[in-house]
């Protein structure tokens, strides 16, 4: 069975799956969609109370959580929509103009 | 088992014998009777099919795509504008390599709105990646539908199949027909066992992902290769079908072509009329022959070139107007296929029978008359003409 990680832009047509079928879950993680970002959130860890409000509001899965604490943004998948900044009750997230991760 | 059935009844009966998993059902003249008869089988408990009534043909084909991806054998039936409304999904079904089976009852495509037979609907879908098999009569409509799944579901093919018959002429006319026993049909068609399907929970699957340009062309090449592979599979399935039915099928039928000098090439029910014309001409010493194209996708180009290589003049008759201003689709493909021959016959194209315009034995004889003149003089005259319309000029 052909795995998604074994397919790349150098693969000949004979080595691709029929119709582009993907035989495993979660392969979107491998795909960099953060390059679409025109505004970028910045995480201020010292102001964060880890209330977790930003996590479910993120339309992507760009805020990783470990051991009950949110970590810095996953900029590979963050689109810079700014919803997290809107819902954050603390000054823990600010938006900067531009797509580059700070 | 002998019976008398209309083309629509015959196809619905084949569907019942196959007992597919899902039908996306929406009515449109002249294919309406197919889901109608099938609904009766569902209501009577004669099939286990999930019968999904939808609000449009766009949705009936969407149902088939989703169901087939889930691992269910799916069918539908449509005509004309219904097929046109499926257009986007036809491409999706083919590119996702989902071997759905669709009964297309050929009807003129609007406009002007018209419910009678011509091939403009399925010819419009000829580049969608579907295998297309055309029937001359009810028997062939029944047989082709039974052969469709073993062709389309083969792993080297994995393409959807459209079986076509002429609206009303074939779909509604009642003819004698030989039906196969249901257990024989079920054994022949077998179970649908794809390697990958959405309901296989131990192996998660994503179907139809977005293709960026570094991948799109590779997947289209895969599809093109599958269509090429379909040709051999169609012949293989025909050979297997002959064993259970005694009826023999090829990519096209050659009628009295052995020593033919003048030949007509066409698709569908007109072949019956043309055979009568060929017989009459043969009786009066004219070396006339007919090729009835059964499989239009994949197009049997090399085989047609071989079959026509010894003729002097050929008329390709299109029952659809492609508006290329250069001839109909069957003509374009047939003439192109003959280009590689060292010695080519002279060729003309006649567009006929649009929107149910009748074609009679005398009309076909007129075409052969034109071919005889072309063969004798070497003068083709107009390459691309229409036949059967009222005109101030004489037409053939």
General description of the model:
The complex is a heterodimer of chains A (102) and B (396). Chain A has two domains: 1-31, no CATH class; 32-102, Alpha-Beta Plaits, CATH 3.30.70.20. Chain A has 102 residues and is mostly beta strands. In chain A, strands 1-4 form a two-stranded antiparallel sheet. Chain A has a two-stranded antiparallel sheet with strand order 2-3. Chain A is built from two helices and four strands. In chain B, helix 1 (7-18) runs parallel beside helix 2 (33-43) and helix 11 (301-308) packs across helix 12 (329-337). Chain B has helices at residues 7-18, 33-43, 57-70, 80-85, 87-95, 120-124, 138-152, 182-189, 213-245, 270-283, 301-308, 329-337, 361-377, and strands at 2-6, 22-25, 50-53, 74-78, 101-106, 131-134, 161-166, 174-178, 252-255, 262-266, 288-293, 295-297, 313-318, 346-352, 384-387. With 396 residues, chain B is an alpha/beta fold. Chain B folds into two domains: 2-245, Thiamin diphosphate (ThDP)-binding fold, Pyr/PP domains (Rossmann fold, 3-Layer(aba) Sandwich); 252-387, Rossmann fold. At the A-B interface, loops of A face helix 9 of B.
For the structure shown, list the relevant keywords:
heterodimer; A: 102 residues; mainly beta; Alpha-Beta Plaits; 2 domains; two-stranded antiparallel ribbon; 4 strands; B: 396 residues; alpha/beta; Rossmann fold; six-stranded mixed sheet; 13 helices; 19% strand
What layout of secondary structure does this protein have?
The complex is a heterodimer of chains A (102) and B (396).
Chain A: E1 39-43, H1 54-57, E2 65-66, E3 69-70, H2 83-87, E4 93-97
Antiparallel strand pairs in A: 1-4, 2-3
Chain B: E1 2-6, H1 7-18, E2 22-25, H2 33-43, E3 50-53, H3 57-70, E4 74-78, H4 80-85, H5 87-95, E5 101-106, H6 120-124, E6 131-134, H7 138-152, E7 161-166, E8 174-178, H8 182-189, H9 213-245, E9 252-255, E10 262-266, H10 270-283, E11 288-293, E12 295-297, H11 301-308, E13 313-318, H12 329-337, E14 346-352, H13 361-377, E15 384-387
Parallel strand pairs in B: 2-3, 2-4, 4-5, 5-7, 6-7, 10-11, 10-13, 13-14, 14-15
Antiparallel strand pairs in B: 1-8, 6-12, 9-11
């Amino acid at each position: 069975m052909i795995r998604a990680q074994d397919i790349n832009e150098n693969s000949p047509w004979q080595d691709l799956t029929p119709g582009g079928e993907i035989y495993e879950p979660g392969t979107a993680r491998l795909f960099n969609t953060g390059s679409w970002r025109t505004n970028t959130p910045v995480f201020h860890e010292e102001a964060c109370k880890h209330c977790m409000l930003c996590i479910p509001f993120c339309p992507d899965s760009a805020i990783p959580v470990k051991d009950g604490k949110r970590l810095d943004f996953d900029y590979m998948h963050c689109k810079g929509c700014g919803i997290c900044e809107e819902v954050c009750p603390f000054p823990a997230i600010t938006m900067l103009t531009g797509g580059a991760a700070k | 088992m002998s019976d008398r059935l209309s083309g629509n009844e015959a196809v619905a009966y084949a569907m019942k014998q196959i007992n597919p998993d899902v039908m996306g059902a929406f009515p449109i003249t002249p294919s309406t009777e197919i889901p109608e008869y099938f609904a009766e089988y569902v209501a009577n408990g004669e099939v286990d099919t999930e019968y999904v009534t939808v609000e449009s043909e766009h949705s009936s084909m969407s149902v088939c795509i989703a169901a087939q991806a889930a691992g269910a054998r799916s069918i539908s039936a449509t005509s004309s504008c219904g097929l046109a409304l499926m257009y986007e999904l036809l491409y999706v079904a083919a590119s996702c390599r989902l071997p759905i089976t669709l009964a297309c009852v050929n009807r003129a495509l609007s406009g002007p709105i018209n419910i009678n037979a011509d091939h403009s609907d399925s010819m419009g879908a000829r580049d969608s990646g579907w295998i297309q098999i055309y029937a001359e009569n009810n028997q062939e409509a029944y047989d082709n539908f039974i052969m469709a799944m073993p062709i389309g579901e083969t792993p080297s093919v994995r393409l959807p199949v459209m079986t076509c018959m002429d609206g009303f002429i074939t779909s509604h006319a009642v003819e004698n027909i030989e039906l196969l026993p249901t257990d024989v049909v079920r054994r022949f068609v077998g179970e649908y066992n794809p390697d990958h399907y959405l309901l296989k929970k131990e192996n998660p699957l994503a179907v139809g992902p977005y293709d960026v340009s570094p991948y799109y062309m590779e997947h289209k090449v895969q599809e093109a290769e599958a269509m090429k592979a379909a040709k051999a599979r169609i012949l293989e399935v025909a050979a297997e079908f002959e064993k259970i039915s005694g009826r023999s099928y090829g990519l096209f039928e050659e009628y009295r072509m052995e020593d033919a000098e003048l030949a007509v090439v066409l698709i569908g029910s007109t072949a019956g009329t043309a055979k009568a014309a060929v017989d009459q001409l043969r009786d009066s010493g004219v070396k006339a022959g007919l090729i009835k194209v059964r499989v239009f996708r994949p197009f049997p180009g090399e085989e047609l070139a071989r079959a026509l290589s010894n003729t002097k003049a050929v008329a390709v008759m299109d029952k659809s107007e492609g508006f290329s201003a250069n001839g109909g689709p069957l003509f374009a493909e047939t003439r192109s296929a003959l280009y590689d021959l060292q010695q080519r016959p002279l060729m003309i194209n006649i567009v006929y029978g649009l929107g149910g315009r009748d074609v009679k034995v005398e009309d076909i004889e007129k075409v052969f008359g034109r071919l005889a003149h072309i063969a004798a003089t070497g003068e083709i005259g107009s390459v691309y003409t229409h036949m059967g319309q009222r005109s101030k000029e004489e037409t053939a």
